[in-house]
């Protein structure tokens, strides 16, 4: 059998789980764009972009001191309570800017938790 015939005879199969199929699989639950974090004059994060998809597990892995916790604290605005800390860029959760003045920070923190 020729190589072309052999290739044509094999089906193209892609396996997906239930969580990967359907419209929710492509839904962005949280989105960070250009997130930078400063402690006074010292910049700790530099323009981080991340999409967190609905119904998916997302893990941030890296060495100590690389900014994982600093970045995660942006999602529940815990950096707000650190003196001299400010965040630049945008973070949307369910399409809502969590740094808008209308955002209830207590309600946000009740909805977003971190596991270490």
Strand content: 25-35%
Oligomer: single chain
What separation lies between the terminal Cα atoms? 55 Å
Mass-distribution shape? globular
With strands numbered from the N-terminus, the spatial order across the biggest sheet is 2-1-3-4
Whole-number count of domains: 1
Helix content: 10-25%
Q: Which residues sit in consecutive blocks of at least 5 with pLDDT less than 50?
A: 11-17
CATH class: Alpha Beta
The Rg value, from CA coordinates, equals 20 Å
CATH superfamily: P-loop containing nucleotide triphosphate hydrolases
Q: What is the succession of H and E elements?
A: HEEHEEH
Number of helical elements:
3
Q: Major sheet, described briefly? A: 4 strands, antiparallel
Global structural class: alpha+beta
Number of strands: 4
CATH topology: Rossmann fold
CATH-level-2 architecture? 3-Layer(aba) Sandwich
Describe it for me?
A four-stranded antiparallel sheet has the order 2-1-3-4, with helices on one face. Helices cover 19% and strands 30% of the residues. It has helices spanning 3-9, 68-75, 105-111; strands at residues 28-39, 42-53, 85-93, 96-97. It has three helices and four strands. The N and C termini lie far apart (55 Å). The chain has 116 residues and is α+β, with helices and mostly antiparallel strands. The longest helix is centred in the middle third of the chain and has 8 residues, at 68-75.
